[in-house]
Write a structure and sequence with these properties.
heterodimer; A: alpha/beta; Alpha-Beta Plaits; FAD/NAD(P)-binding domain; 5-stranded parallel sheet; 18 helices; 23 strands; about 20% strand; B: alpha/beta; Rossmann fold; 2 domains; 6-stranded mixed sheet; 15 strands; about 40% helix
């Protein structure tokens, strides 16, 4: 303890007022009533990524020039960065805090940049967990099925994928046109999954070519059959020549089969299938393409970028209209009779319900009609062992069906309708099947709308918002756009519209990232601590010296990204 | 290497050659060029130093105090109101026994906003515990920076190097810039006696009761006394190494002089010319240049003025309610001396008004024509 020193002579005294002894005995941490807690929080991009990618971490790696490491971090969660970097509706960007200071980080283009790196892809290794000879059957080779197969194979399981079509990839191949997703990108990513030892057997339609009774060798089954049946218009004239259901039309186009459209095309619907069909029709030579949607632009479920690109290419959008009859002559389409709609009260989906305006009928002249009102799963092969609800296979938050060895995911079980959601649900099922086959309880899974990680991190679930960011450290910097081919050129063929980021673009975007909630070792806390109580852990963040930290809070106040938060003493233990 | 440079840049080169490690600064006319050039040296690697830009002179001095406590050779430059704003922290630097070197370009205090030269800004800091050196030429400014670090680091007190606004700061003169190796041999790296060290923490600047405070001030007083001799030794050694010896004062044609002018700063150069003219005319006049002001070199002043009948002190400064500050110091040095010359205290050139050979001539005429001064302070060239 301290005691007063009285010097007997001047010569005994130091030259300046300083303590002769060390001050380390004085543990000033006892003065503290709030303490800084150094722990990463959740970034909004990570929170909403349907595939459960650790986006904030890989953006940080890109900023450091660690491209391969960044790609590995994606591949931990998602074997399809090349696909998602092209077709994902990127909810991460909608939530990005940077949106309010120069524009959201171009995460979507960044994912593509990493996927397209001109170096050979090696999948990140995992310790095998599979019991000996454990075999899993996956029904459907779409993004859900292959994501499940990928995660199972990485854990040492023998996986066989059964695919109804003669081609692999599900909607990624038959639903999405190649101007959005070049086939060589898809082929390469599928090849890297096959390289893990996954067997894919095509032209094996479940319910026709095989059934549950053929799968006794497998200890678990994952159903990921997708939604491949177009909903019907249910109006007169729907059977006429010149009416091409959206999914069938896209399948023909995407498989290189002969697909014919006339010169004037009406596409009915407001989702991605409608937009894809309209742009494909232009590329097949249609001179006029109109998309008819019964609600307004605001309610359109299609990806906003895609809608904009369609309009650039010459697709006309007509809102608040619905067809009531396909007009025909000699069983050939000659036009549509439509009614005007208006928006009434919100329905159960939260969107305002369209209502017919009486007496507003009108006709338009078209020779081709493409209904794209949504799709549904063909569940006719299921027996009573597998429960369904509302046209979807009923699953729990683990992906388990009413049969203990059968799991399900993807659009047929969730109806989410995006590749990224399907990848997330395939991963979720893989983690659950792994537990099931090792005899572990299926607990610890978040709800179906939350996102799971194959490589979880110790992160505070609190989501960092824009108002939490310390704006003293960030300038307004504009978002880097991804280059595109000009609209007049790109409608001539099915080559890719977007041209991808150069390295400089990716670096610029990574450096704009706030790194919300994730410490990137910027040293601000270390520099500002007036008590030398922030200690660097050699390349692994910091720790607080609580013996001397007085709880002044400067570190938390200054941290640009909320990686440090102050909590009342003792409460932090909870 | 000889270069024709401004006084400000002479200081910058001196700091570069002294290998200062931390420079903190806030710009103020007329010193800004000193730190501007140093910032360029730091940016392009000619000087391996941390340059800290802060928001006020108070923080400037706090930053160099911190740097010096951490064991770095620290430098700053300021002027006039900037120096005034530093006042509180000047005490912390001196009481902390930190060998900081600062250049102060003498500039008039406002109001009457004025950027021209006058010594009141630096002389008003005479009681802070800083050593003060007044420079006559750009060469002397450069040389005194190098000597200043050596003196400061020997006696553990800070050094203020003072040069006149514009007359030196912005006027080009030929200056010999010594080579780095020779300066390195003359001025070894700073070896601090006390440092802030997180691995061996001590409490600095804490409470000191009446029981011990006086002894701390007595130690500073002893260091100041020692500084006179240290300055002489360092000046002599500098002369051996670089061929330009320095002392605490300089006597010019003082032998047999009946009237001795006492000057400081660049007025000295003007006075030399006038003394030469008067001597050529057979008049017995001489000159005493005060290079060191703190500590005040009592012995050297007394010894230099021992043979004079009259002493004319030229003050470009004013302690309101008293008079010229150099005059007060010289008068106190002479009190009790065996020989007591008559002292004529002149106030001249305030606010940067030119002090010409004619002005110095008027001063000598006054001293020649009067047996004793007619007033407590003789204000020269004031409009009627």
């Amino acid at each position: 303890m301290s005691h007063q020193i009285v010097f007997k002579t001047e010569a005994d005294m130091p030259l300046l007022p300083m303590s002769l002894g060390s001050t380390l005995y004085n543990k000033t941490g006892s003065w503290r009533y709030v303490r800084p807690i150094y722990r990463n929080k959740t970034s909004p991009c990570n929170q909403v990524c349907p595939a459960g990618e650790d986006i904030v971490a890989y953006l940080g790696m890109v900023a450091e020039g660690e491209y391969e490491q960044a790609r590995q971090r994606i591949l931990e969660e998602n074997p399809f960065p090349g696909v998602c970097g092209r077709v994902c509706p990127h909810p991460c960007e909608s939530e990005c805090n940077r949106a309010q200071l120069g524009g959201a980080i171009a995460i979507h283009a960044m994912e593509r940049f990493l996927a397209d790196l001109p170096m050979e892809r090696t999948l990140p290794a995992l310790e095998p967990t599979a019991p000996a000879n454990a075999k899993v059957a996956v029904i459907g080779s779409g993004p859900a099925g292959l994501s499940c197969a990928y995660q199972m194979a990485r854990r040492g399981y023998k996986v066989t994928v059964f695919e109804a079509l003669p081609v692999v990839g599900g909607m990624m191949r038959v639903g999405i046109p190649s101007y959005r997703l070049p086939r060589k990108v898809l082929d390469a990513e599928i090849a890297s999954i096959v390289a893990l030892g996954v067997e894919i057997r095509t032209s094996m339609r479940f319910g026709n070519d095989l059934g549950f009774e053929d799968l006794h060798d497998y200890q678990a089954i994952f159903l990921a059959i997708g939604q491949h049946r177009s909903r019907k218009l249910n109006i007169p004239g729907e059977g006429a020549q010149g009416v091409l259901p959206g999914l069938e039309f896209l399948r023909q186009v995407n498989l290189g089969q002969k697909a014919h459209v006339g010169s004037t095309v009406a596409v009915i619907g407001g989702g991605n299938t409608a937009v894809d069909a309209s742009r494909a029709a232009l590329r097949l030579g249609a001179s006029k393409v109109v998309v008819l949607y019964r609600r307004s632009r605001h309610e359109m479920p299609a990806v906003a970028d895609e809608i904009e690109e369609a309009e650039q290419e010459g697709v006309r959008l007509e809102f608040l209209t619905a067809p009531v009859e396909v007009l025909t002559n000699n069983d050939r389409v000659t036009g549509l009779r439509c009614v005007r709609m208006r928006l009434g009260a919100p329905d159960e989906s939260g969107r305002r319900r369209p209502e017919v305006i009486p007496g507003s009928e009108y006709t338009i002249d078209v020779d081709t009609v493409i209904p794209a009102l949504g799709q549904e799963a063909d569940l006719s092969f299921l027996d009573e062992r597998i429960q369904t609800e509302g046209g979807l296979i009923l699953i729990t938050e683990t992906g388990a069906t009413s049969h203990q060895a059968i799991f399900a995911g993807g659009d047929a079980a969730t109806g989410f309708g995006t590749v990224a959601h399907a990848i997330g649900s395939g991963k979720r099922a893989a983690l659950a099947i792994d537990k099931y086959l090792r005899g572990q309880a299926l607990n610890g899974f978040p709800s179906l709308t939350a996102h799971v990680r194959a490589a979880p991190r110790d992160v505070d679930p609190t989501v960092v918002r824009f108002e939490d960011i310390n704006l003293a450290y960030f300038m307004e910097e504009p978002r880097t756009p991804q280059p595109q081919r000009p609209a007049t050129e790109r409608i001539r063929d099915f080559s890719e519209v977007n041209l991808g980021f150069a390295e400089g673009d990716a670096l610029r975007e990574a450096e704009r990232c706030f790194s919300c909630g994730t410490c990137n070792q910027c040293d601000t806390c270390w520099l500002y601590c007036p008590d030398v109580c922030i200690l660097r852990r050699d390349g692994d963040g910091y720790e607080v010296n609580y013996d001397y930290c007085k709880g002044c809070g400067i570190c938390a106040q200054e941290c640009p990204r909320v990686a440090i938060a102050m909590e009342e003493e003792l409460k932090w233990r909870k | 290497m000889e270069k024709v440079i401004m006084g400000n840049h002479a200081v910058s080169y001196g700091v570069q050659l002294a290998r200062a490690q931390v420079i903190a600064a806030y710009p103020i006319t007329p010193q800004t060029q000193i730190v501007e050039m140093l910032s360029e040296f730091c940016a392009d690697g000619r000087l391996d130093a941390k340059f800290i830009k802060v928001e006020s002179e108070h923080s400037v001095m706090a930053a160099v105090v911190g740097a010096s406590m951490a064991g770095a050779r620290a430098f700053t430059a300021t002027s006039s109101h900037g120096l005034g704003l530093m006042h509180e922290v000047l005490h912390w630097a001196a009481g902390g026994r930190l060998p900081i070197v600062m250049a102060n370009v003498n500039r008039t205090m406002g109001p009457g906003w004025n950027v021209w030269t006058e010594q009141t800004d630096s002389l008003a800091q005479r009681d802070t515990g800083w050593m003060q050196f007044y420079c006559e030429t750009n060469q002397e400014a450069l040389d005194t920076v190098i000597q200043g670090f050596k003196i400061a680091e020997t006696v553990l007190l800070p050094v203020m190097i003072v040069l006149d606004a514009f007359v030196l700061s912005h006027t080009m003169e030929p200056v010999d810039i010594p080579d780095q190796a020779t300066v390195d041999s003359f001025l070894p790296p700073y070896d601090p006696k006390f440092t802030l060290d997180p691995s061996d923490p001590h409490a600095f600047y804490g409470l000191v009761t009446p029981e011990h405070y006086m002894e701390l001030r007595h130690k500073m007083h002893q260091a100041m006394q020692k500084a006179v001799e240290v300055t002489r030794q360092v000046g002599a050694e500098f002369g051996e190494v670089f061929g330009r010896p320095y002392d605490v004062v300089e006597k010019y044609r003082i032998d047999g002089a009946e009237i001795v002018l006492v000057t400081s700063g660049s007025i000295t150069s003007t006075a030399r010319v006038v003394v030469d003219e008067w001597r050529a005319d057979g008049q017995k006049v001489g000159l005493l240049k005060m290079r060191m002001f703190r500590p005040f070199p009592f012995e050297a002043a007394r010894e230099a003025l021992a043979g004079a009948r009259k002493v004319a002190v030229v003050d470009r400064n004013i302690s309101q309610g008293h008079g010229g500050i150099f005059a007060a110091e010289i008068r106190s040095a002479l009190y009790g001396a065996s020989h007591q010359p008559v002292l004529f205290p002149f106030i001249i050139g305030l606010g940067g008004r030119d002090v010409t050979p004619h002005s110095i001539g008027s001063i000598l005429n006054y001293a020649q024509e009067h047996d004793v001064p007619a007033e407590e302070s003789i204000w020269m060239e004031v409009k009627e």
